[in-house]
């Protein structure tokens, strides 16, 4: 009976070792699958990112001509307005300087209207 018990115990120990081995393999398999899934997800994310960047570059390139055309027209308009302002400045600067000098140099001395009323 003791031999049979020791053989049963030995069988149980072997079964336990086998079960531990199977559990360890399952854990390793799960860890490997998680690593593979992460790697695959990272690849998919990178591919998606590259496709979106290419799409954005294509969109940007297709609209770059419009932006340059608008910028050129704005630059022309700005230059035209600046030339107009310079022309008005050149045409009127002498008149403005003359008016300022007339106001400063040609002073007509008069009594203040309140002072005139008091004396009268």
From TrEMBL:
It comes from the Eukaryota. One of its GO terms (molecular function) is ATP hydrolysis activity. Keywords: Coiled coil, Hydrogen ion transport, Ion transport, Transport. GO terms for cellular component: vacuolar proton-transporting V-type ATPase, V1 domain. Pfam families: V-ATPase_G (PF03179). Residues 12-54 form a coiled coil. The keyword Signal does not apply. InterPro entries: V-ATPase_G (IPR005124). Belongs to the V-ATPase G subunit family. Subunit of the V1 complex of vacuolar(H+)-ATPase (V-ATPase), a multisubunit enzyme composed of a peripheral complex (V1) that hydrolyzes ATP and a membrane integral complex (V0) that translocates protons. V-ATPase is responsible for acidifying and maintaining the pH of intracellular compartments and in some cell types, is targeted to the plasma membrane, where it is responsible for acidifying the extracellular environment. V-ATPase is a heteromultimeric enzyme made up of two complexes: the ATP-hydrolytic V1 complex and the proton translocation V0 complex. This is V-type proton ATPase subunit G. It comes from Pycnoporus cinnabarinus. The lineage of its organism: Eukaryota, Fungi, Dikarya, Basidiomycota, Agaricomycotina.
């Amino acid at each position: 009976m003791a031999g049979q018990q020791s053989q049963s115990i030995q069988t149980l120990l072997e079964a336990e070792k086998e079960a531990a081995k199977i559990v360890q393999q399952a854990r390793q398999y799960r860890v490997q699958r998680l690593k593979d899934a992460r790697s695959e997800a990272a690849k998919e994310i990178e591919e998606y990112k590259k496709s979106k960047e290419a799409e954005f570059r294509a969109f940007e390139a297709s609209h770059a001509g419009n932006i340059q055309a608008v910028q050129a027209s704005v630059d022309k308009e700005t230059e035209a307005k600046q030339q107009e302002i310079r022309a008005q400045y050149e045409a009127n600067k002498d008149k403005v300087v003359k008016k300022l000098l007339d106001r400063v140099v040609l002073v007509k001395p008069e009594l203040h209207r309140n002072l005139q009323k008091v004396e009268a």
